[in-house]
Amino acid sequence: MKLITPELERRFSEAKEDTALDQTLFLAKFLNPCGNEIWYASEYDAKTKTCYGYVTGREYADDWEFFSIPKLEARKLHFGLSIQRELYFEEITLEQVLNPICLSGDFDFEKFKRNREQSEELER
């Protein structure tokens, strides 16, 4: 699978880079179908074919890093699989990556707090 398409490359060139950290916009998501690793790309350099973004699912810690698209594309996994690009990925911010429950839009934080308070009352 080609991880960076011409349309995606164009979108990276249009994106603003001067945003607050928690509002960093991720334009692409790559994942390991045989593991936990997920690469969220916020920047792409077409000359070096390198992305910068947030990587999750590693053994040591989630972190910001540069990653090479050709290396991801060349990575061979079990069962003949390879690193995949999420085809229907909608652009999201770092805040949404770190708080995935908010992505559904159905999450009512006030209701969550009330339910938690009620549960604590019952336990007493």
Automatic annotation (TrEMBL):
It holds the Pfam family DUF2958. It comes from the Bacteria. This is DUF2958 domain-containing protein. It comes from Polaribacter glomeratus.
